[in-house]
Design a protein that fits this description.
The chain is of the alpha+beta class and 384 residues long. It has helices at residues 14-35, 41-44, 59-68, 93-106, 138-144, 147-150, 170-186, 200-228, 231-254, 261-291, 297-329, 335-362, 367-370, 378-382; strands at 38-39, 46-53, 75-79, 81-89, 113-118, 129-134, 153-158, 161-166, 190-198, 258-259.
Length: 384
């Protein structure tokens, strides 16, 4: 046998790898069904607050303050310079501000409570919200609504209720309160750079559109491979992509890592990355089916994967090194993206060999499937 036809018997252990892949996929599916995902702010809704300090940020102290405030899944990470901090929580600051005011009013006793929060009437332009408060006198409320913190207020008594129009928004009330607590704990001067809220409806829409995006990617890949090669190759490619996606998503579900838009972007990127490697292998398989006509399908697949092995190793190792550097030095905001890419690169390499090619062989691909179709009238042209 010539040197170029020596090969590694990849398909010799295909039964074992098939069993491993099936068990791994089942475990991941069960984890997704039982535990679900630890959805990030992008999907659940919440608040993203960027603050700037006049000295390097003490992240442990900031995180301690956020935990003391009982914020839902709070995170605080360095964002760029070591004086810039990104705070994220699944709470909406306006809800926290409203709860804070309600707590202060309840402390007045005698049944004092916050009954409702309404929009100001047209004549109240310049005010943010109107708080309807029961069983509290204007004098008591004046002590609660310190003008230095809540801005300008306007109180109107109506029976046992008092309408209090406030100038500052509920979001800014709690934001200022949180800013003061962090400044006290870190002994730093703090400036709020930006404050953004994401509603749960927007988060649900993003999650649904992400799922539709993955399904669309699968459909387009199936059509592309079917047109370029043959439907048996198309099935192999799709099974491989589904396997990679399930394993990556399953890892995030099993270990309850944060799942946000960067992770979804990584999963979609992996679909394109993985199919690229699979196409390279399939192209060599097609070429060898036409050249090595006396060999069986399994031998041809083994030869093809051996011939592309060096290229695959170089490509995957290079990509893995890049995302590893991104994971260790890219900060917490890119940690999810990096982890998804690393998992996808490893299993993308594995699935190109033991899922895509294995499935194609199992479907009984033959030389006739890949032979160019004879052109009409070709025989007539060859006739004397």
């Amino acid at each position: 046998m010539s040197q170029e036809l020596k090969f590694i018997d990849f398909m010799g252990i295909r039964k074992y790898t098939s069993g491993f892949s099936i068990i791994l996929s089942i475990v991941c599916i069960i984890s997704i069904a039982v535990h679900g995902f630890k959805l990030g702010l992008d999907f659940t809704g919440g608040t993203q607050l960027q603050i700037s300090l006049d000295r390097p940020a003490d992240i442990p102290k900031i995180r301690h303050i956020l935990e003391e405030e009982h914020l839902r899944t709070p995170t605080a990470v360095i964002f760029g310079a070591d004086t810039e901090v990104m705070i994220r929580t699944q709470d909406l600051l306006r809800d926290k501000g409203q709860a804070q005011i309600a707590e202060q009013i309840t402390k007045l006793g005698n049944g004092a409570s916050l009954k409702a929060v309404t929009e100001p009437a047209r004549e109240d332009i310049g005010f943010s919200k109107v708080l309807v408060i029961a069983n509290a006198t204007p004098a008591q409320l004046s002590r609660v609504f310190d003008e230095a913190r809540f801005g300008k207020i306007n109180m109107t008594a109506k029976g046992t209720d008092t309408n209090v129009a406030i100038e500052k928004s509920l979001e800014s009330i709690y934001s200022k309160y949180l800013q003061a607590k962090i400044a006290e704990a870190t002994q730093a001067t703090i400036q709020v750079r930006s404050s953004e809220e994401v509603g749960p409806q927007i988060g649900a829409e993003l999650f649904n559109k992400g799922g539709i995006g993955m399904l669309a990617a699968f459909a387009l890949v199936f059509l592309y491979v079917a047109v370029q090669f043959q439907w048996k190759f198309s099935v192999g490619a799709i099974v491989s992509l589904i396997h990679d996606t399930i394993v990556t998503l399953g890892a995030f579900s099993l270990f309850q890592w944060d799942f946000d838009l960067t992770v979804l972007a990584a999963v979609l990127a992996l679909i394109g990355y993985s199919i690229n490697d699979t196409i390279v292998v399939f192209d060599r398989v097609r070429e060898n089916f036409r050249k090595l006509r006396k060999m069986d399908a399994i031998t041809i697949v083994n030869i093809s994967m051996t011939q592309t092995l060096e290229r695959s190793i170089m490509t995957h190792v290079t990509v893995f090194l890049v995302v590893s550097v991104l994971y260790f030095f890219g900060g917490e905001l890119l940690a999810g993206f990096s982890k998804a890419m690393m998992i996808g690169v490893v299993f993308g390499t594995y699935s190109s060999i033991y899922i895509a090619a294995n499935t194609t062989v199992a479907l009984g691909v033959e030389k006739e499937d890949l032979m160019p179709a004879a052109k009409e009238g070709a025989e007539a042209d060859l006739a004397p």
